[in-house]
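User: I'm curious whether this sequence folds into something compact or stays loose and floppy. Could you predict its structure so I can see for myself?
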Amino acid sequence: MDSRDLAVGLVFLFQTAVGILGNSTFLYCAVLGDLAGNRVKPTDLILRNLAWANFMALLCKGVPQTMVAFSLDHSLDDTACKLVFYFHRVARGVSLGSTCLLSIFQAITISPSNSMWAQLRVRASKFIWPSLCLCWVLHMLVNALIPINVMDIRGGRNLTGMSDFGYCTVRSPRRQFATLYSALLASTDVLCLGLMMWASGSMVFVLSRHKKRVQHIHRSLPSRSVPESRATHSILTLVSSFVLSYSTSTILTTYMALLDGATRWLVHTNVAMAACFPAFCPFLLLSHYTSVSRLCSGCCCLLTNCPGTVREL
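Assistant: Here's the prediction. I'll summarize afterward.
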């Protein structure tokens, strides 16, 4: 193993281990919160769905890619290859859709009372669960053709136009079909990213205008202590990290689909960029969402028998 493969393996290992640990810890805290009788908020459903999708994405992509980088026994049979690629694409799409839904729900929640979105504020929570189910079904249907072009290493070894992922191979379809299918996959990503940026921009605008109205109340406080400043910073951090990671991954995925076989380093780069947000998403949520912080703090106190913590959650 040369130094470049070792560096790639360490990057994949760090991303996969940190991401699986963070998302599984978040889901474990959510289960403990349910057992403690805590009320589940609409945003909690979205965050749990997001954590589960990120966990699936890292498990289906990060683990086999890490084994490839360290030259371990990583061969998968044809059925396993098709399932791994299919569920990774579904989980990636659900993660994107969940983050978009979270941004839209927050934008509706903080919208002014005289805006057109204020009428949806009361009914918005009722559409969370159907929207999440629709997101799963939509991405399962959109990615239904993914397994057709995926096969094991032995099946694609002697075929031309194959992208070698180290543990499976992906056949490049005909140029016309590849263009149409790539446009279909990219359109869903672009739509979600566009809605997310629009919702986040609306939230930043509303919070900035509210901050100016109550600025005289916060004159005695430093700028970083103002709630509106913290909320704006949280929104910008989450959205910018998500847009950077997934837009780069979308461009690379589309480019690879149009090539007659992608190089190993292009595959590694695409995998690393796609794993950035799923790996660090739970820590971003823990840092910027107070409800998640209280949930995890309460779960830690449940394990240590801290008095009065469950009632505060």
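Summary: Residues 42 and 126 are 8 Å apart (CA to CA). Strands lie at 150-151, 162-164, 169-171.
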